[in-house]
């Protein structure tokens, strides 16, 4: 998914060089509503990057959307756009999304399936609700920052139609990335992290095992969810810090959530629009390449065309007048 804002708020360098002891052990991160392209755009709830907290482990971007009734509507329509230095994860609770990218991948993504795209040095992709889509669209889009030694890897796409799960009367845990209580996801990762989808019945109180060395957060995809005696509004994220070996959730009504975590990311990042780099110049180079290449037949492309998409690609927003400035991955405003 693209950050299609004309003026991306996250025009910053993210730094992990902050003493963990100065950060809250628990913190409720409220989302902001963002239009996902065009004058009649569907709207998404963006929990990461947040005003103060930029990342949870290597997870650096978290949008959730729906459930939305898209009967008779186009649904999700995100034209070709570029990425660098990250992986994208799509997680659907309802509906379908048609994924196409510049390495030739063509996949219809359904609930419970994991499409994982690694941008590396550069990739382009589009995301669309298919013409014969379901009535409802409901899910989340996540980004994972790649560490320095992996951020220039060749672009790639992998698709997992079956993922390991833990089932109980209290709910199910599907492992998207990393490991939860011995269940290991087949997804390729480049830093120590975990991602899990939770489906909780009404009245359910599932306990999720956690890695104490990781920091964790819970992203609520539906109402009525709480953890650690804190109610989590839809689209909000409850940051849980480090040092926990488990967390218990409760659900007033049947609902879904994501558990995200990992070792605190120990590198400085610049994240602007759909690019992750290490400097202002990284971003300038990526943007220049995209503006030079998209909707043209320019040879030796960094990103490549998304064959099969009928329509123009997204143009990059204008860079700010000043160089992108450094800010911490946790940056309190008080």
From TrEMBL:
UniProt keyword annotation of Cell inner membrane present: no
- Protein family per UniProt: Belongs to the pirin family.
Q: Which molecular function GO terms apply here?
A: metal ion binding
- Name listed for the protein in its UniProt record: Redox-sensitive bicupin YhaK (Pirin superfamily)
Q: Show which residues constitute the signal peptide.
A: none
Q: Which UniProt keywords apply?
A: Iron, Metal-binding
Annotated Fe cation binding sites: 81, 83, 125, 127
What are the Pirin N-terminal domain coordinates in residue numbering? 42-144
Co-factor remark: Binds 1 Fe cation per subunit.
* Listed Pfam families: Pirin (PF02678), Pirin_C (PF05726)
Keyword Iron recorded: yes
Provide the cofactor list for this protein. Answer: Fe cation
Q: Which parts of this chain are annotated as the region Disordered?
A: 292-315
Q: What is the lineage of its organism?
A: Bacteria, Bacillati, Actinomycetota, Actinomycetes, Actinopolysporales
**Stretches assigned to the Pirin C-terminal domain:** 199-292
